[in-house]
Please model this.
Amino acid sequence: MKYLSEYRNPELVKKYLDEIRQSCTKPWMIMEVCGGQTHSIVKNGLLQLLPKEITMVHGPGCPVCVTPMHLIDKAVYLALKEKVILCSFGDMLRVPGSTDSLLEAKSKGADVRILYSPLEAVKLAKDNPNKQVVFFAVGFETTAPANALSVLHAHREGLENYSILASHVLVPPAIDAVMNDDLVNIQGFLAAGHVCTIMGIGEYGPLVEKYQVPIVVTGFEPVDILHGILMVVKQLEKSEHKLENQYARVVRPEGNPEARKVIEEVFEITDREWRGVGNIPLSGYQVKEQYAAFDANKKFSIKIPKVEENPECIAGQVLKGIKKPHECPQFGKGCTPERPLGAPMVSSEGACAAYYHFSKISGQLTEA
Amino acid sequence: MSDYKSILSASCPMPKLDFEIITMGHGSGGMLTHKLLDAGVFDVLSNEYLDKQHDGAVFDVTPGKMAFTTDSYVVSPIFFPGGNIGELAINGTVNDLCMCGAKAAFISLSFIIEEGLRVSDFWEILLHIKQAADHAGVKIVTGDTKVVERGKGDKIFINTSGVGKVHPEAAISVDRIKTGDKVIISNDIARHGIAIMSVREGLEFESDIESDTCHFNHIVEQLLEDFGNGIHFLRDATRGGLSTILNEVSQSLSKGIAIHQKDITVDESVAGACELLGLDPLYVANEGVFVAFVEASIADQVVQKLKSWENGLHAAVIGEVADQHPGQVVFHSQIGGRRVVNMLVGEQLPRIC
Model:
C-alpha cells in the first residue's frame, strides 16, 4: 500500500532501532499521547524491540478510554428512549457505563447504529423524519471537524431531528495536566500526528518551554514511531527541548485552516471531565449556544444520577504513567477485558488491555 | 441490494406466478405453499430423492464412518459482493463436513422467510443454491419452508444439514495435533467479512472486494487421498477469523502456536479497508479459507497441492505448533516484534482512531 508499506519496512525499523540503541545512554520515560500510536506499538510488538532503557507510557489519548462514565450513561439513556436512533463510532459500544454499555442497551431493544461518519447520521435523520437521531460525538480534535460539519449540514437542511452528544477532548490541555502532576516523571512526548493535521503544531511550543520537555509530532506506523522516539532520545541525550515534526508528510505547521474554521463555527472550548483523570480546565469542546438546537444535552432533558467511578480502578495513575497496569491490585483479577472496571481495559488500545494481552506471553510481563 | 445479484435468473427465468411477494399464506401448507414449491423449489432442485416429495429422504449407505452437521445462515444483507445467503448455506454446510474429513453428499434445506420477501429475490437465491450444490456435487434431498410475520425475521433465514462419508484414510481430530506440526492456511484471509462490511448500512464504501465463499468438497478429498492421516486437523476460518480458530486449538491442546505475519496474505484492497475501518484482518470472517495442521514433513507438498486449486492461490505455511506459551497464539510481526493474538471478547467493532 502506497504511503503505508514504506513505513512498515523491516530494514528501516532495524535501522532506527539500531540508532536508538546507539543514542541511548541512560533510562528515559517517553509518553505516546495518542491511542492510535499505542495500538500500533502493541500490534507490531514494538515494546520488546526497544532497548530496556526506554519506557513507553501509554497516554490519555484514547477517546474511548477518557469519555466519562456519566456521558456514556447519558448516551445509554437516550438510546433507550422511544423514537431515538443513537449513532456512534464502533468501539464506543462496548465501554461500560454505570449499569449498561451501548451494546447492552442495544440488546435491550435500543436502536443503536454503528456509523463511520457523522454525515451518515444526518442522512439517517433525513430518512427518518419521525425519529430523533443522536450522534455520540466522541473524539479528539481529529474527529471534531466532521462532527461540526454534521451540525452545519443539519442546520442548512433545516433538520429538527438531528443532534450530537458531544464529548470532544483536546490534547494540549491533557499534556499540561499530565505534566502538572508532581508524581509524573515523563521526560518526552510523541504528540498525536492526526490531531496536528487539523490543529497544526503551534499549541505545543508553549508546553515545550513551560515544562522543558521535547515534544515530537509523530505518525502511526512502526517506522514513524521509532523515528519519533529517536528524535526525542537525541534531544534528551543532549539535554535539549524542542518542538519537532516527524510527521511532516502529513502535518503542516498551520494544520488545516478550513477544518479549524468549521470547528470554530460550531464548538467552543469548555472544561471537561476525563475518565480516570478528572476535570481538566478548558480541555474540551461543547456546542455553541447558536447551535443549541443540535446539542443533545440541551435538547433532551436528561435527568440521571451521577455515579462515581469504581474507586478500585487506578486508571488515572496508569494514564499518567505513575503506575504500570499490572501494579493495580485488580489487574487480571477483578478487572479483565471481559469484565473491565475502568476504560483502559476496554479498548484494544487502552493501556491495561494492551498489558493484559501481552502479559500472557509467559514471563514477559514486566518487560512490556 | 440488487446490484450484487448475478445474471443467473436471466438464463433461468422465474416462472410466472400470480404473486410478487411472499405472504403468510405461502407457509400455510395449503394452495399457496404448493404453488411456490411446485413452480419453484422442486423444479429447480429436482433430483431422484427430492422428486419423491416425501417427508424425508431415503438413501443407501455403504460401510464406514459418516459425518453429520448442521448450520443456520442469517447473513445481512442477503445479497453481497461475490455471493448471497443461498450459496453460503450450501458451501458452509458442505465445508463443515469436509473439515471432518468427509465428502458431503446429501443436504437438507429449510427456509424461514419473513413475510414480504420478493419472490424474485427468493428465485435468485434458489438458483444460487442449485448452482452451489452442483459445483460441490451434493444433492438437496429434503427440506421445509416456513413463513413468519413481518418483523419476526430478517428477509430470509436458511438452515442446512448435511451428511457425508468420511474418507477411509482420514483421522482428523484436535488431539492428533502435536508439537512441530505446521499450520497451513488455504488462501488469503478476510475477504468475506470485508465484502459484507462494505455494504452494511452506515459503513458503505466503494470497493471491488468480493466474498471468498467456495466449497472444499473436492480439494479436501484430494488432500486426504494424497496425504491420508498426515493431515491431523482441519477447521474452516469462518466467524471470528483465523485468530479465533488458532486460539480455540491452542487452548484445547495447551500448546503454543506461533504464526508469522510475513506468510499470511491479505489482498491489498482488503488490507486497505481494514486500515480504514480499524479492523484486524486476523479476526475478520472468511467463507473460503480453512486451516490445516499437518505433519511437518508433508507441509510443503500440501501447500503445493492447495496452490493447484483455483481457490488456493495464496496457500502457505504460516506457523507451527510449539511447547512454549501453552494456550497462546504468538504473532510474529513483519518487523520482528511479537504479540499475543487473543480470542475476541465480543464482535469486532470499527475503531475511532
